[in-house]
Every structure is written in C-alpha cells, then in structure tokens.
C-alpha cells in the first residue's frame, strides 16, 4: 500500500523526517506542490487529488499546513480514496491567515468529521498551533490523538530526523489485504 508524504508550507527541508521517510520507503511518494512558498488551497488540492487518482487507497502522512490541506480534502469526492491519514503538527491556518494573507485560502479550519481513519500528532509547545486547539480539532475530525509532549513543531528544528514511530502510526491505519480467491475444502 502506498504512502503519500504531504509537506506543509515551504516543503520539508533536507533532514526532515518526511524526506528521510521517502529515502527509506520505496512505497512512499512525495506530493510535490508547484509553489511551496505561496500556498493556494485550490492549487494544492488539485495536485493532491491528482496524486490520489494515481495511487488510490493510500495512507497520507501530512505535516503542518499539509494537515490542513488533508482536512479540506475530506469534503471532496476524492477523499473516498484515502485509506487513512497521520496528521503531524497541524498548523493553525486561521491564526496564520490573520498574520499573513498568503494563508487566507486555508482558513477557516474545517470542523467536521474527516470520514476516514486519522491520527493527529501534536506537541505541547508547537509554535504553530496550541495543544488545546490541536486536541479539540482531533475530536471534531474524529481522529485519534497522540501527545508527543514537548516536541516543538515536530521538525528538524525541534530535533526530529528519522521518526520510526511515524511508520508505526501509518501502519496502524493500513487496511489488511484480503485474499478473496475461493479456498479449497480440506
């Protein structure tokens, strides 16, 4: 089963756990946006939907503004192709939009059940979203919730490189492969 890696604003820099995931996992593919510096929700959704059409039943592993992108995708028909999503350190697009209009298209944050299995991973000292808001969104989105304690924005700056627990979380969302071939009676 395919894993789609979905970075946020500015992409995931070299050394980021998402980039390392791509290097370690042959089934992982990057959802590469045309312009990481100027996020436009409609354009980013189009790119993500095209990648989902190529790789249906994928597990999405998103970071920061990428989590917000996935939450907006949940209301669209292509969400039916998502096996699950790990949403790591979601960004507060509402606060970001109030400080910089380039993020306006990502606000407001969706407040409905995502409709697919998901896990929000948050930190108590993330500068891009308060812990309380991340926990509340997980509840509204119908997501599981993982508290990483004091892990900053769960990125290179916060000391995250390879992150094996991320693989464990993503694997927990994978649907078991079933063999529907008829079985011979013994």
From TrEMBL:
Which InterPro entries does UniProt cross-reference here? Answer: AB_hydrolase_fold (IPR029058), RBBP9/YdeN (IPR010662)
Leader sequence range is none
Q: Does Calcium appear among the keywords?
A: no
- Kindly indicate whether the keyword DNA-binding belongs to this entry: no
A GO molecular function assigned to this protein is: hydrolase activity
Q: Which Pfam families does this chain map to?
A: Ser_hydrolase (PF06821)
- Identify this protein by name: Alpha/beta hydrolase
């Amino acid at each position: 089963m395919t894993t789609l890696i979905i970075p946020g604003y500015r992409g995931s820099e070299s050394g980021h756990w998402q980039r390392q995931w791509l290097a370690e996992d042959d089934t992982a593919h990057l959802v590469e946006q045309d312009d990481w510096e100027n996020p436009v929700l409609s354009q980013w959704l189009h790119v993500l939907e095209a990648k989902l059409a190529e790789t249906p039943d994928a597990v999405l592993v998103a970071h920061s503004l990428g989590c917000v992108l996935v939450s907006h995708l949940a209301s669209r028909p292509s969400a039916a192709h998502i096996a699950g999503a790990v949403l790591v350190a979601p960004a507060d697009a509402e606060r970001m939009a109030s400080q910089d209009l380039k993020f306006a298209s990502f606000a407001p944050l969706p407040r409905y059940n995502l409709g697919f299995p998901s896990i929000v991973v948050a930190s108590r000292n993330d500068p891009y979203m308060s812990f309380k808001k991340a926990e509340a969104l997980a509840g509204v989105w119908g997501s599981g919730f993982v508290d990483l304690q004091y892990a900053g924005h769960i990125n290179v700056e916060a000391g995250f490189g390879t992150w094996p627990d991320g693989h464990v979380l993503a694997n927990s969302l994978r649907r078991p492969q079933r063999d529907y071939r008829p079985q011979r009676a013994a």
